[in-house]
Design brief:
With 318 residues, this protein is α/β, with parallel strands linked by helices. The protein contains 12 helices and 8 strands. The protein is 48% helix and 13% strand. Strands 5-7-8-6 form a 4-stranded mixed beta sheet. Strands 1-2 form a two-stranded antiparallel sheet. A two-stranded parallel ribbon has the order 3-4. The two termini are 45 Å apart.
Length: 318
Amino acid sequence: MDVELKHLSSLLLENSEELRDSLEEFKKGSISDEEFTTLVEEIVQTRVSSLDTAKVKEIQESGFHSLQRMREQEDFDPKNLLMGNEKTGPKSLHPLYSALLAERLQFDGDAPELRTGPLPPGARPAPSVGTSARSPVAIGAQLEKASEKVLGLISEGVRAALGEDPDEGQLAVLPASVDPPEYRRGSVPVPIEAEDVTGSSLAAVDGDLSKSFAWKAISTTQGRKSVVDVIRSLVMNSLDPGKFFPVDSEGQEVRESFPWTFQMSHEGALQSNFCFVDTCAGYFIRCMKDFEGPVNFSIETVDKISDRQVGWRLDIFE
């Protein structure tokens, strides 16, 4: 076993007597694979969170390094989303992908394009927004309002289909037809047109909430998607529109790429007044001035969530 995985396993076992007992029961054959997996998930979720901050951080870092090692394995084929065969029972999602999905949901809250069922109980919708805002605090506030709006639309659909007080069984089998058109399972959500955020309303936001909004804007996939158009607009306003042409990246052959990324740490370390959007746009403008026109380009998000490396990327096409 990989040394990092060994370390992670020992950390978890060291800090949970219940996990150790469950492992012994599993070894004896007293519980099935499925029961053991469910128990482990419950134990980790309920027990690890009660540990001191330093220990939790050590476990998280160990898990991160384990995942990184798995990604680097030469025999790992990203196409193998499912594991298992008919002889061993139903196939299950590859644990690496399960981990990567869990990491994304940790920040985004939901990923409707990857769901086949209704929004899970307690989950928050994660739509992007159509915005012209450049302040991460304003964008975060708009994302929060958009999430509330979509949640309201989902609730309306549920009430129309099932009445005022549906039970959990009914909610679990809700058909896709009740999803709002802007936010359907199995589809990339449509950006929600954002309400303008005034300067006076931003000034009234206290420090903690300001950081929370800014963190939502830069740490979530939907937040980074929301500002692609804003960055593109800033770039185009500073360059000769007769030389530079924004295009769809699909099917294009990339000539050069210029990523502008940053390392996500945690909400408390964020400077909410830092101009992420303007700084990124300024970097792209400097990069593009070295090219003779005509130039086709696109601006995409960088979403290396497992590496905590995110931002935006300028692609110049042949």
